[in-house]
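Quarterly update from the structural biology core.
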Amino acid sequence: MDAILGFLNNPVFITALQFVFGLVVKYHPSWGKFPNWTIPFLNSIVALLIMLGAPQPVQAGVFGHIAVPGFLGVALSAGWSAIQTSLIYEVFGKGPLHNVLKVQPNTV
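Predicted structure, tokenized:
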């Protein structure tokens, strides 16, 4: 079980998971009424749960260059991961994806 959770705790996997979740919420017709502003918060919660369940690295959490141990470090790392994923979408994904995929109307 630790091997699976260790794989899920990979920052590349967490970013890809968050990115795909955001795309599903934004572009899938059945998620059209789901508020887009909640995507980063849900991504933070998912990353936090993965990071809490996975075996801890040598440093519990690193925020910038400051090591923050314990739950606060993990929570900061999960939030920072969601912020980075949102920025990746806004800077690199929004333009090309709007040309290819149809945005679902957000009525909420």
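The first helix runs from residue 2 to 8.
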